[in-house]
Amino acid sequence: MNKRKSIIYIFCAFVLLPIHAQERQKTTRANESINIFTDVMRQVDVNYVDTLDYESLTETAINAMLRKIDPYTIYYPKKNDRDLRMMTTGKYGGIGSIIQQRPAPTKTKGDKKPSKDSLWTYAVNPYEGKPAQRAGVKAGDRILSIDGKTTQGLTVSEVSNNLRGVPGTTVVLEIEREGVAKPFKIEIVREDIHMDPVSYYTLIEADTLSTPVGYISFDEFTEGSAQAFSNALDDLYYNQGARKLIIDLRGNGGGIVDEAIQLVNLFVDKDITIVETKGKTANSNRTYKTRNTPRYKDLPLVVLVNKSSASASEIVSGALQDLKRATIIGQRTFGKGLVQNVRPIVYGGHIKVTTSKYYLPSGRCIQAIDYSERQKGHELKKDTAGGIMPDIEIKDSSKVDICYSLYIDNYFFDFATRYYRLHDSIAHPEVFELTDADINDFCAYLEEREFSYETETSKFFADMLRMAENEDIDSTTFAQLKAFEPILKPDFRAAIERNIDEVKQLLGSEIVLRYYYQKGQAAYQLRFDKELERALQELK
Length: 540
Known about the structure:
Layout: H1 2-47, H2 54-67, E1 74-76, H3 81-89, E2 91-94, E3 97-103, E4 119-126, H4 131-135, E5 142-146, E6 149-150, H5 156-163, E7 170-176, E8 184-189, E9 191-194, E10 198-204, E11 213-218, H6 225-239, E12 244-248, H7 257-265, E13 273-279, E14 286-289, E15 301-305, H8 312-322, E16 327-330, E17 338-344, E18 350-359, H9 372-375, E19 392-393, H10 402-408, H11 411-422, H12 436-448, H13 456-469, H14 475-482, H15 485-488, H16 492-498, H17 500-526, H18 530-538
Parallel strand pairs: 11-12, 12-15, 15-16, 16-19
Antiparallel strand pairs: 1-18, 2-9, 3-4, 4-5, 5-6, 5-7, 7-8, 10-11, 13-14, 13-18, 17-18
Helix pairs in contact: 6-7, 7-8, 11-17
C-alpha cells in the first residue's frame, strides 16, 4: 500500500513539475523585462545629454506596450482621471458640445486650400440645454481661443482638456462665426455634464400598424442607463399606449455589463443566465444572472444592431436572441467580447485591463478578433463566428460615392451652417423637406468651393494613364486612351441627381440639427430609416 502511494506521489510530482516550472519561467521572464526597462531608464537618466521629461517618457513607454496587447487595455495617469470618470459614468465637468478638428473651409473660388498643419477646432454639436448651447454657441462656430490661448494646431484631446474643468468655473471662448464681421467672446460656466443614454424615444403610430410601437434609441451603458431606459419604456407603455417595442442599439459601443443585465431583465425571467466571463484568474470567472421578476415579459421586441454595436450591446442583443426573446435586425455586430476591469496603480493612476471574455447563454463567445496574434507578429483577422449575426440581415447600403465625399469633407456641414444663417426657421423635423431651390443653392455652393471628387473608376483610369506614360505605347494609342478622360471625369451635379434621396437625407439631417438639436435630428432621420421600416414589418 505504501509502495502504491509512493508511486502515485511520484507520478503527481512529474505531472505538476512542468506546470510549476512553466510558472517560474513566466515569472522569471517578467522580472527580467522589468529589470531591463529599469536599467534603460537609469542609463538614459545618467548619461543623456539633455534634461528628460520622465512623466512623458514613462507614459509613452506604457502606451506603446499596451497597444501591443489590445485596443482596450489603457493606462490612465492621475491627470486623466476625468476621462475615466466620463467613460464609466457618462458625466464630466464641461460645456456640453461635440467638437471637431479640421482645416478652415475655403470661402471663395480661387482661395488657396489650407495646409493640413493649419487646423482649428469647430463646435459641431452643442447639446440642447447644456451650457454651450445656453450661452449661444452654434454648430459651425470656429473656436479661436480658450481663455486667451489659441486652439490652432491643437488636437481634439488637447482642446477637450482645456474645455473641461471643475463644475462652476468659467471658461471664455473666442468665436468666429460665418456672417459675423468680427470674432467675439462667449463666457460659459462649466457644469457637471451627464449625457442621457436614451438619446430619443417616440411612439410610432402608422396606418399600417395594428398596435402602436414604441421606439427607444439607446446610446451607451453608463451608470444609471438601465433605469433611464426603463423610465422611457414606462412612459411609452403606460402613458402613450405602446404595446410593442423597437430597441435601437446601432452605434452603441457598450459600457457597464451590470447595466446590460438590468436592461435584459426587463424582458426575461428571474435567475436566467445572461452572460458568463472566463479569464485567467478565479476572480475573472463570473456568471451574470437576472435578479428580478420581469416587468415586460411578454412585450414583443425587435432589436436593431449594426457593425458599430459592441460589448454590452452585444450582450443584450445576443442574450435576447439566444433566449428567443427578440428578433435581431441589421448587420453583424462588432465582436467586442473582451472584459475590462479598472484597477488602481501607484501615484493615483489607473489601468483598464482586459481580464476575460464574454460568453452568451448558448456558449458562444462574442469576441471576433484574437489579439494574441498581434503579439506573435501575425496579421489580425476578424473571426466570422464572433459578434452577433442578426436574425434578419440587412446589407449595409453605404457606398463610397459622392455622398461620402460630401460628408467626410464637411460640405454638408458647412452648407448647413450657411443655411441656418440665412433662414430664421424651418418646418418641424417630421415634415421638413428640402426644395429644388435648396438643392440648386447647394450645387452653387459646391461650385463656389470648387468641389471635386473621384470615383473608383476615375482613380483607376488616372493610374492607368500614368502607367501608360511610362510604357512603350505609341502616341496615337495614348491619345485614344486620353480621349476617355473627360468622359470618365465625375460630374458632381449629375451624381447628386442620381443620389438625390441620399443627398436630401444627409443634408436635411445636418440642417435640422441646427434648429431642433439632437432629438429633432433623430426624428428626421427615422423618416428615411430602412431598418426601422423592416422592424415595423416584423412587428405587424
